[in-house]
Amino acid sequence: MSVGQDLLDVPFGDMVLQLALAIAQGQYEMDKVCCEIAKLMGTEKISLKNVSTGAVLETTLLGAGFQPTFYQFTDTIIEVKMAISMQKSTEKSVSAKAKAGFGIFSASVNASYSSKYSYSVDGSSLLRTKITPIPPNATLQALIGINPETGAPAAPTTPSTTEEP
Questions:
Q1: Partners of 86 in the beta sheet?
Q2: Which listed site, 21, 79, 118, 164, has its alpha carbon 20 to 30 Å from 65?
Q3: Cα–Cα distance list, 4 to 7, 41, 118, 156 (Å)
Q4: What's the CA gap between 109 and 23, in Å, rounded?
Q5: Alpha-helix runs per DSSP H in 44-151
C-alpha cells in the first residue's frame, strides 16, 4: 500500500456531492419554514395602542411593517487533513556462550532476527458553512405588500381602530 494510493482513495468527489445535496435539502427546509412564518405574520392579528391618542390599532405584523427573514447558505468550506506514515525497523542480535572443561567443549549460539512494520494514518476533516439572512425575494415582497426597493409596506393598510374608553 502506497501513500499516494491512500490519498487517491479519499472519496473527495463523494464528499463534495453529499455536502451539496445536504445544503440543497437544508435550503429547501429553511425556505419552507420562512414561507410559513411569512404566512403567520400576514394572518395573525396584533393590537397596538397609540400612546398619544389612545386609539387601538389592530393589524398583522406585516401590516405593522415587519418582514419575514429568509436565510441562504453563502459560504461553504471543506477542509481535509491527512497524515500517513510508514516505518520499518529491523533488529538483529547474536549471542554465544561457550563452556570448556577437561575434554568436553560445548557452545550455544542464539541468533534472533525481528522485523517490525508500523503503519499509521491520521485524518481529520472540517465542514464549515455560513448562513446569511436575506430579505424575501421581490415576488414574495410584492405578494405580501412590501416595496422591494425600499422594504417599506407598498400600500398603507386599512387597519381597524377602536377608541378605548
A1: 119
A2: 164
A3: 5, 57, 17, 67
A4: 69
A5: 138-143
Residues contacting residue 82 through CB under 8 Å, at least 6 positions apart: 6, 7, 10, 121, 122, 123, 124
d(CA 164, CA 54): 6
Secondary structure tally for the chain: helices H, strands E: 3, 5
For the chain (165 residues), the mean pLDDT of every run of 10, in chain order, is: 57 80 92 92 90 90 86 82 67 65 58 65 75 83 70 53 51
Model pTM?
A: 0.53
| CA 96 to mean position of chain CA atoms | 65
Q: Residue 145: which region, alpha, beta or left (left: phi > 0; alpha: psi -120 to 50)?
A: left
